[in-house]
Design goal:
With 703 residues, the protein is of the alpha/beta class. The chain is built from 23 helices and 27 strands. Helix 2 packs antiparallel against helix 11, helix 8 crosses helix 10 and helix 11 runs parallel beside helix 14.
């Protein structure tokens, strides 16, 4: 059945099919997500999120960098004398620095004097000072010293291991409170986005430089690792298996306050000579100071999400900032990406398939991937990094593959619709032509038959509210139901014109009861409408109201058209009358209107109400028109009363007694009576002085 092929059930199947495509797209995208290029793309999106939302004002202003930059190297001897570092460290301690970290590996004795190493070590032992060391994964270095080991509890079976180290030279190292490593590892694309917090050594757990500095600065709080969390004091940080912290950068190089080393030397000279200090010493009061390289020639520039070349000491400053302020970046687990990918694909598939217009559906289907991007950006601002590359890719794959599937399905569906309409011919006509192919010539003969015209009220407005797909589906269901009734009663469907149906009874096979069959079909069509409308309104479609016009009389039936293309149809004034009566229903508010000839040629099983005498557009002869009410067995008492009252009122109306007729029509509460009462009121005024001109005929002015 046509209604089965294009019912709402087919829409549900289409949605399920596209949802399956979405699931397959998710699985395909997931298989690609395990490749390195997918990880590289994901890391690139993380960098983009950083660059789109820098937060330099959130950077800890108490972290200050002292940089051995190119300008300092031009003005200071190189290697820089250890005595100078000692003097700078004493100056920082005098200015109230909270803690000082050296990201400079003093592994070789001073080239100037052994004494300055001893002095440097002595000054370093006073206060919170951390020096960097280099951990080695081989055993040919020095043993890891005790002041490189930190007291921390937890499960460290997954930590990266180091077997030896390169510490500062002995004269310096012996007085240092704590050593920290700076063995950072960049991601496969060469960008530094995380830092190793702890390393396992034969001597114990060694901290990184930022951890060592933060631990000293926070007065050595309790520190431990538990359930993928690194806890230092009151702050907790998510870490991966290797105890690596995903850094939360606040901006590009230069985000933290910094001074060139040469400015501190100038401050030392000013103090010695009694001149005003060229450096604002309040900058260092309570500050966490890191000293490191910034000159390109010293090869400690590292790419970060913000900058292609960022001083390595500034990466350490970012880690220190995160540790001191509990500011971290959490990379959501892989199962989160699986769920988001499924949600994006399923909603994209749902939007794509549930909306009738495919271009509109495709536009809506783009919303889930876009929404994921917006959500991922908002979560990133709160320190949560969720994967977006393969969830968005799965959504795009769903849209592309689902769109291709729907377009091909729609093309097939349209072809089926064209095929279905081409089959809307009466089986009797097909049989007649099969038996007598010579009838496929132009010409026809005269017969007394009954024609049928139907049209949906307000169909233009209905069609404007529906998509083409919904409109075709609705029209197919309607035409199929009406056509089945016509064919079952022995009628022949002449043609469809949009929502309009033209049919006739009495050809090609002669039928003596053609009028009775037509009346039965009209009533069955209206009954079918009631049941169909219950289904349509439940499915969200508008209610359909059909007007039907019948006409009985002599007409010409046969093959008409050109020698190359013709139709089996009917012609004549009787045919035109049926079309006009279908439209006349609009005037009286009726559903089925017939002329007197149809009433005469039908049986007593049908109940008619005589409505009026009218003259339709295009015909001069007046016609007595009737409303087909029901079959005899279905007539109710209230309908009987209406028929009686209307009959009396109609006689008064035809007699020109409009006032009395109006009063009678007013007693009946149905559409034709209301129309006639209004007409009587008008005629009372119009013809009060010329009643003799009244002939009881109402002229229709439109079709």
């Amino acid at each position: 059945m046509l209604s089965d092929r294009f019912s709402p059930g087919s829409r549900a199947r289409r949605i399920l099919q596209v949802l399956l495509i979405g699931l397959l797209s998710t699985l395909f995208a997931w298989s690609l997500s395990n490749l390195e290029f997918a990880d590289s793309l994901e890391r690139s999106t993380l960098d983009l999120r950083f660059r789109l939302s820098p937060t330099p004002l959130s950077a800890d202003s108490s972290i200050v960098l002292i940089l051995l930059d190119g300008g300092s190297m031009d003005q200071l001897p190189f290697p820089v004398p250890r005595q100078l570092y000692s003097d700078v460290l004493e100056l920082l301690q005098d200015w109230g620095a909270n803690a000082v970290g050296f990201d400079i590996l003093f592994d070789l004795p001073s080239v100037y004097s052994v004494t300055e190493d001893s002095i440097f070590g002595s000054v370093s032992s006073d206060g919170r000072t951390v020096f960097v060391m280099s951990l080695l994964q081989r055993e040919d270095g020095s043993p890891v010293p005790e002041n490189a080991i930190i007291d921390i509890s937890g499960d460290f079976s997954d930590l990266d291991s180091a077997y030896s180290c390169i510490p500062p030279c002995q004269m310096i190292a012996r007085g240092i409170p704590l050593l920290g490593s700076s063995n950072d590892r960049q991601d496969p694309d060469g960008v530094f986005r995380n830092i190793r917090l702890l390393s396992a050594t034969p001597s114990g757990i060694a901290p990184s430089l930022p951890v060592a500095l933060a631990w000293l600065a926070l007065d050595k709080p309790e520190m431990y690792v538990d359930n993928a969390q690194f806890i230092i004091g009151e702050n907790s940080f998510p870490i991966d298996e290797g105890c690596r912290l995903q850094l939360k950068f606040h901006g590009p190089a230069g985000t933290y306050s910094s001074l060139p080393l040469v400015d501190l030397v100038a401050a030392l000279n000013a103090r010695a000579t009694g001149l005003p200090c060229p450096v604002d010493s309040s900058l260092f009061d309570g500050a966490f100071v890191l000293l490191g390289y910034a000159a390109p020639a010293l090869y400690d520039l590292k790419p970060t999400p913000y900058s292609a070349q960022c001083p390595g000491v500034e990466v350490l400053a970012t880690a220190l900032d995160n540790l001191l302020n509990g500011d971290s970046m959490y990379h959501a687990r892989s199962w989160v990406a699986v769920i988001t990918s499924l949600l994006v694909s399923m909603f994209a598939a749902l939007f794509l398939s549930a909306v009738k217009k495919i271009p509109l559906g495709a536009s809506l289907a783009v919303l889930p991937p876009l929404l994921l991007l917006v959500i991922s950006f908002l979560l990133f601002r709160r320190g949560i990094w969720i994967d977006t590359v393969w969830p968005v890719s799965s959504g795009i794959l769903t849209i592309l593959s689902g769109g291709i599937f729907l377009f091909s399905s729609e093309n097939r569906r349209r072809q089926e619709i064209r095929t279905a309409f081409s089959q809307y011919l009466s089986p009797d006509v097909v049989a007649q032509v099969t038996e007598h192919p010579e009838t496929l010539v132009l010409g026809g003969d005269r017969r007394v038959m009954t024609t049928f015209f139907s049209d949906i009220r307000g169909f233009t407005g209905i069609s404007e509210k529906l998509s083409p797909e919904d409109l075709v589906s609705l029209l197919n269901r309607y035409l199929t139901a009406m056509t089945d009734i016509i064919l079952e009663t022995g009628g022949t469907v002449d043609k469809f014109e949009g929502d309009a149906i033209m049919a006739f009874w009495g050809a090609p096979i002669h039928l003596d009861d053609h009028a009775e069959r037509a009346c039965s079909a009209a009533l069955q069509c209206q009954k079918e409408h009631i049941e169909m409308n219950l289904q349509l309104t439940a499915e969200g479609y508008p209610e359909l109201i059909t007007r039907i016009g019948l006409s009985t009389g002599e007409m010409v039936v046969g093959n008409m058209g050109s020698s190359k293309r013709f139709d089996y149809t009917v012609m004549g004034s009787t045919v035109n009358l049926g079309s006009r009566l279908e439209g006349a229903n609009k005037v009286y508010g009726t559903s089925i209107m017939v002329p007197e000839e149809t009433c005469i040629n039908s049986s007593d099983d049908f109940i008619f109400r005589e409505l009026d005498t009218i003259r339709v557009v295009g015909q001069k002869k007046p016609v007595n028109v009737f409303e087909l009410i029901c079959i005899q067995d279905d007539l109710t008492d209230s309908q009987k009363m209406v028929l009686e009252y209307y009959s009396v009122a109609l006689e008064l109306y035809r007699a020109g007694r409009f006032k009395e007729a109006e009063e009678k029509f007013a007693l009946i509460d149905d559409a034709p009576s209301i129309v006639m009462a209004e007409r009587c009121r008008y005629l009372t005024e119009e013809h009060r002085n010329n009643e003799k001109d009244w002939d009881g005929i109402f002229n229709l002015t439109s079709k």
